[in-house]
Each structure stands twice: as C-alpha cells, then as structure tokens.
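Entry 12.
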Amino acid sequence: MEFPQIDPIAIDIGFFQIRWYALAYLGGFLGGWFWADRLVRRYPEGTRPNRDDIENLVTWVVLGVIFGGRIGYVLFYNFEYYSQHLNQVLHIWQGGMSFHGGLMGVILAILSYCLLQKVSLLRTGDVVASVVPIGLGLGRLSNFINGELFGRPTDLPWGMVFPGGGAEPRHPSQLYQAMLEGLVLFIILNLMMRKERFRNRPGFVTGSFFVFYGLARFSVEFVRQPDAQIGLILDFMSMGQILSLPMIVFGLGLMIYVARHDRKTA
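Predicted 3D structure (tokens):
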C-alpha cells in the first residue's frame, strides 16, 4: 500500500505557512481546554475544581508541553548531537519533541500551579489526564501526515511504503498510536470520569492514565521503527519502552494508594 501523499502544510498563503503539526498542537490545547471545562461541571458543589483555575492552568500546561517536550527529546533521544550544538537546543521549529519530556513538563506545571494557588493537585490532575488523549491523538495523526515515526517492515496487507522508509511496506504505527493513545484512552478515562466511584477518588483517573498510556506505548513500540540515532537498548527494548515502564509502575502505585486511602477514610 502506497503512503497517501498529504501536504504537511495545511495553510499556505505565500509569505505565511501553517503546518498540520502546529494545528495538532493548537487543536489539542483548545480541545483539551473545552473538554476540561465540561468535565468540571460533573463534580458536585464543594468538590468541583474551579473553572477559573482550569482556564489559568492552560498557559502553564502549554509551556510545560513545549519546553518539557523539547528538553526531553534533547536528553532522551539526541543528547550526543545537541551536546555539540547547544545553540540549537531551543530550535523547536526544526522538529524533535518527546512525549515523556512533555509529560514531565506538564506534571511540573500542574504541581507548581496547584501549590501556588492552593488547589487540589489530584482533582486537577484527573481533569487534565482525561483530556490529554485529545492532543495525543491529533499529534500522532500529524506524524502520519508528515510520514515520520513510521513502523518496522511488515507483510500485513495494510503495510505502507513511507517516504524515507525504503521500499519495504511498514507498519503505520502512527495510526496505531493515534487509536490507542488517542481514541481508546480518551474513551476509557472519560467513562471513568462519568462514574462517581472513580471521580470521587482523586488521583485514581490520573493513575489510570499513566498505566493505560504506558501499556499502549510499550505495546506499539514493538512494531515502531526505533530512532536511528539510538536503536534498541540492550538489543531488545526501545527508548520509548524504557521510559514507559516507570509510568506503569507509578500509575499502579497511585491507584493502589488512592484505593487504600479511600478504604481507610470509609
């Protein structure tokens, strides 16, 4: 199957261009903000996160994603190159973002905001975690449009010949990730947010996000082409898998902590 040639530039008016990748980020932030505002209305009065806090937090999250994602890419995926080209570390427009770095940036942003404003960290985290898959799904679709981050060679009928990927059909792993990390994860977390037994256990949905994202990413990495500058770690694990394992462990720990704390309170 041939890769569908889609122009990575969504809007071109000559002197100004907007790429699908930029629109994916914009759609993720705006869509997440809109859906988070809807989610907070489901909380009863007295436990409801402040809608103003959600609105104010958007700026913090945007900065966390951009700077965390870039720093994570530099440290985890291309440290040798950027250690010799320090002047290019902040050249975000050249590409190169890491989800795990962006995640750490978002965690730091939420933690800082909640401490400064004295609002519930875990309740805020639950709301943010429930909308993150919107940006993840859109981001993976833009990776597909760009023909980047493709999968390993395959003989399955839906394998695609990607530009820059050689003559062999490859897994469209970007679409796998868009489905699992975007659509499926969004459905799971938001179904949980509809149930009082999960919504009223602050931190449980956040823990679930870490677990389910980590499992989805770990699984897809088996068919995703490893980064050329890194390859496989210890000849069998990718960097994405190594970074996902602590997410799964942390998420399980948080879910267990919340469940035990809830039983003690009861």
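Annotation: DSSP finds nine helices and two strands in the chain. Residues 9-265 form one domain.
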